[in-house]
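Weekly puzzle thread! Below is a chain. First person to post its structure in token form gets bragging rights.
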Amino acid sequence: IQHNVFKTLTGRELGGTPNNAVACGSLLFIACTDENVVEVFNLNTNNSTQIKVNAPRELATDKHSVYVSSYEGKVTKIDVASLTVVGTSDVIGNYLEGITVVNGFVYVCNAYNKTADPETGYDIYDYKTNVVKLNSSDLTKVKDITVAANPNIILTDGNNVYVDSWGNYFDVQPTVQRINASDNVTPLTSANWMAYNKNKLYLIEQAYDENWQSTFKYKTYDLTSNTESIFLNDIDKTIFYPGTIGVDPLSDEIFITSYIAGDYGYADYSANGYLMRYKNDGSFIQKYETGVGPCTLVFLAHYELQEVQEES
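Winning reply:
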């Protein structure tokens, strides 16, 4: 594992909140929320270019364009060839989170809105229940699709779209749902983190024990048979508090990031985390130390990079 790669190669920091990343050919697009930019890092030349986008949050690509959700409630479209912004939607929501693109449409999660309580000054959260569907060509709105409260993670298998709604962290539980090509919504299971590989969803479900300590279940959901199974029995709680899950599409290996425990037994959001690597059957391979807040995984296939470059 190599640390501080961006700073080592470019001579500068990414910033305080690089939130999400997606690869498109030889380019790695990185959403830096507080810096109001999308960094475009060239994997061949090690150069990086900044594209101005206000409060960028999550990214998706169809290999020709990159689509960016934002906390401004808009979606931005970046042309990969020219590295310029070629479209911005109207305000379609509030705090937009996960985004995906399939079959000529962009789907984006309208997670919540927040306002300050005039008496206490604390934030009041209003959890939303819609995924917004846009035309990918010009980012015009097609419709709102009603889902469970607080949609955050969204991905596609190339035909259907899968949404992980996180609920209200109290009496509305997290829910994974499928949106089919006709925009019909079907609840599938409960989970807080989600990844996709070869017709399976890889899921982490969080619950609480009698002492209000977090417990986690690591499972798969087979999209052909609509059945669940456990892929990892983390009996010794090697994974303290997950940050994200991903599956390498070539090796089928499973990667799970985690925070470490802080002084009071909760996740430490200012300390280095770690990455756990498993075979697809759940057997352990290796553990790596990461930087602070490991919450995005991007898998790069070298032959695919060359193929996309030649096609371009």
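Puzzle host: Confirmed. Bonus trivia for everyone else. The mean pLDDT is 93.
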